[in-house]
Amino acid sequence: MVCKNCETKSVIKLTNTNKSLCKNCFIRYFERKVKNTISKYKMVDKGDHIGVAVSGGKDSLTTLYLLHEIFSNRKDIKITALAIDEGIKGYRDEALEHLKKFCKGLKVELKIYSFKKEFGKTLDQILKKEKHPCSICGVLRRFLLNSKARKLKFTKLATGHNLDDESQSVIMNQFRRNVKTSARLGPVTGILKDKKLIRRIKPLYFLTEKEVRAYAYLKGFMDKFNECPYHYDSYRGAIRDMLNDFEDKHPGTKHNVISSFLEVLPLLKKEYKNLGDLMYCKKCKEPCSSEVCRVCEMLKRLK
User: Fold this and answer.
1) What is the three-class DSSP state of 152?
2) How many other C-beta atoms are found inside a 10 Å radius of the C-beta of residue 59?
3) Residues 6+ apart with CB under 8 A from 107
4) How far apart are CA 122 and CA 137, in angstroms?
5) Residues 190-222: pLDDT tens digits?
6) CATH architecture, domain defined by 41-275
7) Range list of H helices, the chain
């Protein structure tokens, strides 16, 4: 195949448009889409200190790199990388070493916090007692990302969520009849504004996992893509496989899921905006939806 724009050898075929692009045209397409997403959804404001949640994987490295490229010349914008070490031997430790070198190359400050130091146990140790690794890890990671982002005085927290991630979340919430949670999704997350909740932004929102992988590879960010060893026991994994199967048979399915979702998202935010003030955990004082947050309940169970 040849590139749709310049008729040189293509490197990727875009499923939503059925276009094939060469390396240079694809990189321009990718970067332009990220810039347009940031602009359209007003993700960055003057004077922002943007924390970028980084794991060392393709999505977070791409997000960090592009935010640095776009805003490095802005004196009023600061970029800091924030990583969580869950304690997954042979996986997270290797990724963090790569991440440290990547941040050093960009001259971006990197802050790392660990499950072991903050909660007393690594994820590997926690899973000797607990099941459902993705659910446990997700709760603890989100807790640390928000609390440490606030401690570091971030005004925004950028994540590497791509179109695949978001479409999976939308379908998961539908299957679980958890529409209120979907109301908090979108390119810029949240329903209510609260000083203890750091607003999250998703610059890769309209790019597929395939596109992010191709971009990271073509830019030389990484030459291998490893999956978390615990991903096998995941509800999200089952939804991902289902959507991938639909995408193979009906190209554009994931884009259609997100396009449809964004049409109803304003209605969802309006519906759930006035359901009362946010609560705070009586133990740790972090924002939550009940008297005691899931993290404190989990840590009590683990003692």
Assistant:
1) coil
2) 24
3) none
4) 10
5) 887 888 899 999 999 999 999 999 999 999 998
6) 3-Layer(aba) Sandwich (3.40)
7) 23-40, 58-71, 92-106, 115-119, 123-126, 133-151, 163-175, 179-182, 209-218, 235-249, 253-272, 294-302
What is the C-alpha to C-alpha distance for residues 149 and 138, in angstroms, rounded to an integer?
16
Q: Where are the domains of the chain?
A: 41-275
DSSP letters of 178-198?
-HHHHTT-SSB--SS--TTSP
23 touches 11 (CB < 8 A): yes
pLDDT at 129: 82
- The residues of the chain scoring below 70 in pLDDT are 223, 232-233, 275-277
Question: Partners of 111 in the beta sheet?
Answer: 82
What token pair was written down for 168?
A: 């999976």
Q: Which residues pair with 285 in a beta bridge?
A: none
Contact 50, 158 (CB under 8 A): yes
CB–CB of 16/46 below 8 Å?
no
pTM above 0.85, yes or no: yes
Tell me how crowded residue 50 is: count the other CB atoms within 10 A of its CB.
24
**What's at 223, amino acid-wise?**
D
* pLDDT tens, position by position, 241-289: 999 999 999 999 999 999 999 999 999 999 888 765 678 999 999 988 7
Q: 149: Cβ–Cβ under 8 A, 6 or more apart, which residues?
A: 51, 82, 157, 198
* CA 303/CA 293 separation, integer angstroms: 16
Question: In the chain, how long is the greatest CA-to-CA distance?
Answer: 62
